[in-house]
Amino acid sequence: MPPSPHPLAVSAPFDPQPEPASLAWLQEQWAQLGDCFVIPPVSRRSPSLFVNDAEAVDHVLKGNRRNYVKGVGFERVEMLLGNGIITSDGDQWRRQRTMIQPAFKTGRIATLQRTMADAAAALTAGWDRQLAAADDEAPSVNVTREMSEFGLEVILRALFSDDYESLTGPESGSQFAFLATQFERDLRFAHRFRKLTGPIGDLIEDRLASGRRPDDLLSGLLDARHRATGTGMTRRELIDEVTTLIVAGHETSAGTLNWVWYELARHPEVEAQVLEELAGLPAEASTSLAGPGPSDLLTLKYTRQVLDECLRLYPPVWMFSRKALEADTVLGQPVEAGTNVFVSPYLMHRNSRYWSATGQSPGESLQDFNPAHFDSPPAVASSFIPFSAGSRRCIGEHFSYLEMLTLLAAALPRFQLSLEDAEPVPIEAAVNLRSARDIVMHLQRRSPN
Question: Would the pTM count as exceeding 0.90?
Fold first, then answer.
């Protein structure tokens, strides 16, 4: 990085990668050096730039986005997911994004909400059975595991609908089940995951040959055509996009719901306010077997604030990078071509330049859970980036919110979950941010008012 009239602070040498030590290192450097600093190279040729400034994030992700491609660290994701919309760049990414977008239109996702409601009904039925078997005792529930299983079922049913049972049933050996129980994203996991491309490819070939198009996301991908050429996706592209949607669509919602139950148990006053809001859903929706529909759920302003606050404190993607294709200027600082620019949603969401304590509790800090942070939208949009920002903002954002609202509306009024262990649950910042240990809670039936 060339010298500038006002050179940035320089951190200790480090290769920031999504490894457990990286977040603690970044926090320490940020506290000492401020919102923008240079990271000298260790194994790479050029220095990197860390930015925790919303103006810089806007510039990199929006204003000059065509100059920035996926940076260091994404090669590990590509090893797992192939060349889907998370890992692809340039013309390939633009083509795929344009073709996939119609499958995630609001109206299409609304039709998939029935799938979410069915999965929520299955989960609550399982909790009913646990309570019935436990008599008067409060059985233990591994919330981390159950939210992971719920999230996995939702995305698999949304993708495969009529073919879900044949892919995941007893005869197939529940070949997708490990995704809900194995959280380490290592080579062993990658190898096991890539083996799933076999049955996924077989299903794609079957649908192409038969012309079957049930109302699901896979059908939307199969029928997608590029507007300029009229061509569809290749078999390889279809497989890579499906595997990308499985991982991204499963982990974000499941991880966030894990933290939602944890924070509700720690903040009964917040839980009470969510319950009050859920009780205000239309009576016919609240008492139906399927539960409230999309239009009802989207009126849940305070419940949405609870989700946003969990995403503020625990963004699933805690750090990502972009690489400059050509020389640029960021915050008045010259940036060489090839420079990696690192952004951390985890630290951005704790930046006191954009966020402040609500003043509702003495000694409150930005580390504390408080949905009042979202009483109004963030004053600076790019200070809240759990789904990234700009043209590469997560395509499944609306799907994820609707899924989480569906589960809370189905489960929270009927069941109370309380923590077995009062000790705070630490985070683990590996490829994704998650709880360092499973969150186990006591399950009770909620007393009627």
Answer: yes
